[in-house]
Structure formats: structure tokens, C-alpha cells
Design brief:
4 helices, 4-stranded antiparallel β-sheet, 4-stranded mixed β-sheet, NudJ, EC 3.6.1.-, NUDIX_hydrolase_dom, hydrolase
Length: 165
């Protein structure tokens, strides 16, 4: 019998706080509308910090500059569409929010970006897309911060493989 290769899905996420409110996105899922911090898959050719900044722009229409690494988080669930067992490896960042671009269309499935108080985030935990949403926010509030240099991206990630443009 051949063992299945375990490959967690790598995601990047931003915890953004401004004036006591946190930036979340409300998105359509097969299980209804869910809340998440701006987050998504790490794309080829980018560092985790770059991917996080891109996801915030695509999902919430805000510029974002990661300034600290919050941590690496693992969560396991069943894929909504197939019931397949999956594990997510989330690299979470905090940083500075920049300009808002309200004219920019949001990613497919994103209904809106919303600023929520901690009490509102806690009151909607049953509607969180991931069990890691509140955990990351609570780590941020606890003062967890690591330097961005805690994540090393080898130059090979940022360049095309030999023979490709």
C-alpha cells in the first residue's frame, strides 16, 4: 500500500488593527457567509510577507506593509466541497495599513471588508472561516511579535527555474 503524501496548504494572513478595530473580510463559502482576516494562498515567486500584502490588497482593497511575524499556525478540517481531510499552515503577520482603494474590486467571493471590535470578532466566532482567526488576533493582542527576518526566503523562490521566462 502506498502512503499518501501529506502536503499542508500554505496560507498567509494579516492581523490589522486600527483604533481598536480589526480588519476582517466577509466571504461566501459553501457553508454560507464567513469572516476571516485577509488571507489566502501563498503564490509562486513571492515571499510570505509579499503574499500577505497582496492578499490584503486583493481581499480588502487596502495597502498593507507587514512589520512583524506573529507566528506559524496549523489547523485541520474537512474540505467543504469534497469532504477531503486537509491541513492549513498559516503564516500570520501584523503591520501598517495604508491607503484604502474603494474603487478596487474585491476578490471573487469576498462580499465586503469590515472593521470589527474584539467583542464583535468574539461574538461571530461561529461564523469564522478558520479556527485560527481569533487565535491570531489574541496572539497579536498578547504582544506576540517576531522579526520578519525569522522567515528566510531563498533567492531561488524569487527567480524562475532554469529555462523558464
Amino acid at each position: 500500500m502506498t502512503a499518501l503524501r501529506w502536503k499542508p496548504t500554505v496560507t498567509v494572513a494579516a492581523v490589522i488593527e486600527q483604533g481598536g478595530r480589526f480588519l476582517l473580510v466577509e466571504e461566501e463559502t459553501k457553508l454560507g457567509l464567513k469572516f476571516n482576516t485577509p488571507a489566502g494562498h501563498l503564490d509562486p515567486g513571492e515571499t510570505p510577507a509579499q503574499g500577505c500584502a497582496r492578499e490584503v490588497l486583493e481581499e480588502a482593497a487596502y495597502d498593507f506593509t507587514p512589520t512583524a511575524f506573529l507566528g506559524l499556525y496549523l489547523a485541520r478540517s474537512r474540505k467543504n466541497s469534497t469532504g477531503e481531510d486537509q491541513t492549513y499552515l498559516r503564516l500570520a503577520f501584523c503591520g501598517e495599513v495604508g491607503a484604502h482603494h474603494p474603487e478596487r474590486p474585491l476578490d471573487h467571493g469576498i462580499v465586503r471588508a469590515v472593521w470589527m471590535t474584539l467583542d464583535e470578532v468574539r461574538a461571530t466566532v461561529d461564523r469564522h472561516r478558520s479556527p485560527l482567526v481569533l487565535t491570531c488576533i489574541e496572539d497579536y493582542l498578547a504582544g506576540v511579535r517576531m522579526p520578519l527576518s525569522a522567515i528566510h526566503t531563498h533567492e531561488s523562490v524569487l527567480t524562475a527555474p532554469d529555462g523558464e521566462a
